[in-house]
Specification:
ten-stranded mixed beta sheet; Multidrug efflux transporter AcrB transmembrane fold; Alpha-Beta Plaits; 33 helices; alpha+beta; nine-stranded antiparallel beta sheet
Length: about 1100
């Protein structure tokens, strides 16, 4: 076999090689290894270095904290390369800067750079400021497992003790990282001071605290030698029992010791609760095997994170085995342990489901080929598909990707396109076997040689259409990147397999179809004959031809108009269908813990009426175990008597008819009615399908001063609340909270020998209490703090507080003589973003059109009408902060910002795709006009994509856009194969019209098969809530473009080539005249 091209030579080398089956076996083994060895997770691991820096400055106002601390260090941190965002908040006595680096920046390097920058500028700390604290958080800190201990027999203290012991035991499991306990109360030695007794003994609270600290000391004093022996010398003794504390001498009066029990009540009890955790059962509790009544049971939750890179499924399974082992040992039989989060199990379920879908897609495509081309061709495809997938999965493993829903979707997405090379090669081998009289071996090699070069070009075109999507930036980049990376690698491997493995097995499986020696060519089908007649009319009748093209253009305009008329709405990603919801509750500042708990109990009663709820955990005064959404929104910092969260668990998605988003919409009105009675705010937080944001709708309000920012933000908040479909409206501005300030009369204090620091210390001790050490109890897992403070009744009364005595130079002085009480309002927090002061207004969407862009468009007009001095309008920006703060302005953020970034980057990727494909086709066909013919069908995909979304009632999402861009390469692939064959026929001497019709007739079969493979491969993800848009785009776009391009491409090619021929004929007489002259 001579005159073979590059593809033919490769096929000839492998078609009889003994290495070919070994390559297949090795590839499959690598794929199996990758499935077992690659860690499994539900979501991709996004590296977003995010660090919180705390700046304590006790006693300072928010304005002073902002001016003296935050502004100074923000400027220094902004100098660090790789910092993308700076968020800061200044509160009374405390400031915090959150530093977010660019996605993909190395976590360790970012932390080191930031730490060095802060520590090297400690000289900028103002007097009164304490050392800054740098704390990093990453996705690896998100707990994968939550265990809630609850009981109707054990109280919060008993649950906490068991939880502590169990948590310590679980920490021994391999690959366990951080673990935390939420809820319960710890043991505490309470020292409740009696103000009257202190006065009678002329003692102050500070003196008692000092005596306790000095009396609870023991230390190694050294070594002594006596009688040829060495002794370890120890001095002092610890407080190890309540009686030790009671007998402690705190002073001496009239020559007699004053014991602690003389001036205080010492109680071995539990801490005053700062938070509560309760466990409740829903109507679907039986589905989870839970039994109990309609009560809020005391509870404690253990949350456990895994080490970076560990397999979430294996770690969760090992932890649960350990829990089962400890039942009846550490865990009493009357105490229940409920798994309230298991991301290891959800990762396994999702992975198993997607692996099954991948297997189903591969089998479906194989059956499709077998039906159209026979079982032998199907058998060849059955080898090519798993070999390609196995190699792609191995590359995923080597790159460092985990097995998660995105990487597996990338493989499923690839199935429909990776089989194209095999289909084209097998179909051409089949055609050569049935239409030529060559020997089978030569026919197979010649078939590969003929189709190989255009197949390579077509494969490069598909890769060129997919790979640019890997350069999408922001948080969405890591979510999308496995799709272009995986699909591109799959296409490379599919081409290699098509040129090496496919000919090997096609020759052996299909040579029985060879017509070697036969004289009669097979008869064409009626469909082919019909196509030839139709195309003949279209090519030779201008009216029919232009009428068809006009119809196609009208269909295109109609399809695009569906977006304008909102029959198809645009959204970043659709709502996911999870088995959990989170309720975020904010009571008015100043609400007591008990009042907040009453409101949360009412919310629990409402949840007991929701049929899909299995159980819920109420966290009052503290945060629940955070997820990735809570990590970005900083829910883990939520503490205090006015905050609460409820974690709601639902039955599995296979056991309910509605999606989690439908349930969230249904329960929101009833829950809001309860919180409205308490003047509280509630947000129903769903787990986002993609990267989380601070809120779905965010208006960042900027302006020249805080007063103007708050005034405008309040008006915008009102616009949010009055806009249909906008819910969960909130803003970053606290309610007025009354405050009491004890102002020291400096003159009287100086005359009495008392300074302001003593007043502050005494009041802090009396009201807030002070932990002055621990009671040394060997068997306690948690330290037993010794807490000194006034009893609740005394510290809640101004008169009692005022009667406390302070030690002066001339004797003890009552506090009432040195201070006056001034009533006021607590100063509110101040926020900044990227060095600019801001007030945030937030909301969510839950209406007929649940996409933030439409809500923003509605609100923009109302915001324009907000009156401003001087007749100015509020500047509204979609992508960047206002350049100047001199005039009011807002920036729209939240989901809109990610939507803008993603569609901007995908648009740029699409432009790059067009350029790359054009360059490739120009290089191949050596013509500047042919590429336009080849690329013309790309817009035709919209004729299928947009009506398909409208019929399914689906959003046009980022995954839809990915499908549209990917289809550009697939459609161009078909165009290349068709036009390349037409030019081959023309080189053989066939007329233009006959060559075009012949190409359309002969090449339609592989075009139809590749289109059907895309449709079948995409169908398995059609009902996935996240990737439905991708499936619809691939299926509907492929059907429409394949149907129309079979006619459109030949027509356009005919028109362009006819024009070229006419132009060429006109030039030829001119050249003859020139020659004669």
């Amino acid at each position: 076999m001579n005159n073979l091209g590059f593809a033919g030579k490769i096929a000839r080398a492998f078609i009889d090689s003994k290495l070919t089956p070994l390559i297949v076996a090795a590839s499959l083994l690598l794929g199996l290894y990758s499935i077992v060895a690659t860690p499994r997770e539900e979501e991709p691991q996004i590296v977003v270095p995010m660090v919180d820096i705390y700046f304590p400055m006790p006693g300072s106002s928010p304005k002073e904290v902002e001016e003296r601390l935050i502004n100074t260090f923000e400027k220094k941190i902004w100098e660090i390369k790789g910092v993308e965002y700076l968020y800061s908040v200044s509160r009374p006595g405390m400031g915090m800067i959150t530093v977010r680096f660019l996605v993909g920046e190395d976590m360790e390097n970012s932390l080191v750079k930031l730490y060095n920058k802060v520590m090297s500028n400690r000289n900028l700390l103002p007097p009164g400021a304490a050392e800054p604290l740098v704390v990093s958080k990453s996705i690896d800190d998100v707990p994968i497992l939550s265990l809630t201990l609850w009981s109707d027999r054990y109280d919060h203290h008993a649950l906490r003790r068991v939880a502590r012991e169990l948590c310590d035991d679980l920490q021994k499991v391999d690959n366990v990282a951080n673990s935390e306990i939420r809820g319960g109360v710890s043991r505490e030695l309470k020292v409740s001071l009696d103000a009257a007794r202190l006065s009678s003994y002329a003692l102050t609270p500070v003196a008692v605290m000092g005596a306790l600290e000095r009396g609870n000391v023991a230390q190694r004093a050294g070594d002594i030698s006596s009688g040829n022996r060495d002794y370890k010398l120890e001095a002092g003794s610890f407080i190890s029992t309540p009686d030790d504390a009671r007998r402690l001498v705190v002073s001496v009066k009239d020559g007699r010791p004053v014991y602690l029990s003389d001036v205080a009540t010492v109680t071995d009890g539990v801490q005053e609760p700062k938070d509560y955790v309760f466990f409740g059962l829903g109507p679907a509790a039986a589905e989870k095997g839970l039994k109990g009544g309609a009560a809020d049971y005391p509870a404690v939750t253990i949350s456990i994170a895994k080490r970076k890179g560990a397999n979430a499924t294996w770690v969760a399974e090992d932890l649960l085995k350990r829990v089962e082992f400890q039942k009846g040992k550490i865990i009493p039989s009357e105490m229940q342990v409920t798994v309230t989060r298991n991301y290891g199990e959800t990762a396994k379920d999702k992975n198993d489901e997607l692996l099954f879908h991948m297997f189903l897609a591969a089998i479906s495509v194989t059956i499709l080929i077998a039906v159209f081309m026979g079982w032998r061709a199907g058998a060849v495809a059955a080898i090519a598909i798993p070999v390609t997938l196995a190699l792609t999965m191995f590359i995923f493993n080597r790159i460092g990707y985990t097995l998660n829903r995105i990487t597996l979707f990338a493989l499923i997405f690839s199935i429909g396109i990776l089989v194209d090379d095999a289909i084209v090669v097998v179909e051409n081998i089949h055609r050569y076997f049935t239409t030529t009289r060559l020997k089978p071996l030569e026919a197979a090699v010649r078939a590969v040689d003929e189709i190989g070069n255009p197949t390579m070009l077509a494969t490069l075109a598909v890769i060129a259409s997919i790979l640019p999507m890997g350069f999408v930036g922001g948080l969405m980049g890591p979510y999308m990147r496995p799709i272009p990376v995986g699909a591109s690698m799959a296409m490379v491997f599919s081409l290699l397999i098509a040129l090496t493995v496919t000919p090997y097995f096609a020759y052996r499986f299909m040579k029985g179809e060879s017509h070697y020696g036969s004289e009669a060519p097979p008869e064409e089908s009626w469909m082919t004959r019909f196509y030839r007649r139709i195309m003949g009319r279209l090519l030779h009748d201008k009216k029919v031809r232009y009428g068809f093209l006009a119809t196609v253009v009208l269909l295109l305009f109609f399809s695009v108009s569906l977006i304008y008329f909102k029959a198809v709405t645009v959204k970043m990603l659709p709502f996911d269908n999870k088995s959990e919801l989170q309720l975020i509750v904010d009571a008015p500042e100043g609400t007591t813990l008990e009042e907040n708990a009453r409101m949360v109990a009412e919310l629990g009663e409402a949840l007991r009426k929701v049929p899909e709820v299995t159980d819920f955990q109420s966290y009052v005064g503290t945060n629940s175990p955070f997820n990735f959404n809570g990590l970005v929104r900083h829910y883990y910092l939520r503490k205090g008597p006015s905050v609460a969260e409820i974690q709601v668990n639902l039955v599995g998605k296979d056991e309910r008819s509605g999606q989690s988003h439908d349930i969230a919409r249904r329960i929101r009105p009833a829950l809001k009615a309860i919180t409205d009675r308490y003047h509280a705010r509630i947000k129903v937080a769903e787990i986002p399908p993609g990267p989380p944001v601070i809120s779905t709708l965010v208006a960042e309000v900027y302006g020249p001063n805080q007063q103007s920012r708050v005034e405008i933000a309040e008006k915008i908040k009102g616009i949010f609340a009055s806009t249909p479909g906008v819910v969960d409206v909130d803003w970053y501005q606290e309610d007025d909270q009354p405050s009491l300030r004890f102002e020291v009369d400096r003159e009287k204090a100086a005359l009495s020998g008392v300074d302001a620091a003593q007043v502050v210390q005494t009041l802090k001790l009396a009201v807030g209490g002070a932990d002055v050490g621990i009671m040394h109890v060997p068997k306690e897992k948690e330290p037993v703090q010794i807490n000194v403070r006034l009893p609740l009744a005394s510290r809640s009364d101004i008169a009692s507080l005022s009667s406390i005595y302070l030690a002066g130079s001339k004797g003890n002085v009552p506090l009432s003589e040195l201070v006056r009480v001034v009533k006021g309002v607590e100063e509110k927090s101040l926020y900044r973003k990227n060095l600019k002061s801001v007030v945030y207004v937030t909301g969510d969407v839950a209406g007929v059109i649940e996409a933030p862009v439409y809500a923003i468009l509605k609100m923009q007009k109302d915001i324009d009408n907000i009156p401003l001095p001087g007749g100015y309008r509020i500047e509204q920006r979609a992508a960047t902060q206002p350049w100047s703060e001199e005039r009011p302005g807002i920036k729209w953020d939240g989901e809109w910002h990610i939507t803008y970034e993603v569609f901007r980057d995908l648009g740029a990727a699409f432009a790059a795709v067009m350029v790359l494909i054009y360059v490739l086709v120009v290089a191949w066909f050596r013509d500047f006009t042919t590429p336009f013919v080849i690329m013309a069908p790309i817009p035709l995909t919209l004729i299928g994509i947009l009506p398909g979304h409208a019929l399914m009632g689906a959003f046009f999402t980022a995954t839809s856009m990915i499908g549209f861009i990917a289809l550009a390469g697939i459609i161009v692939r078909n165009s290349i194969i068709l036009i390349d064959f037409a030019e081959l026929r023309r080189r053989e001497g066939m007329a233009l019209d006959e060559a075009i019709i012949d190409a359309g007739a002969i090449r339609f079969r592989p075009m139809l098969l590749t289109a059907a493979a895309v449709v079948v491969g995409s169908f398995v993800i059609l009902f996935d809530p996240i990737f439905q848009g991708l499936a619809l785009a691939m299926m509907c776009g492929e059907i429409a473009s394949t149907t129309l391009s079979r006619i459109t491409i030949p027509i356009l090619y005919f028109m362009v080539e006819s024009w070229k021929e006419k132009h060429k004929k006109k030039e030829e007489p001119d050249k003859e005249v020139e020659v004669q002259v």
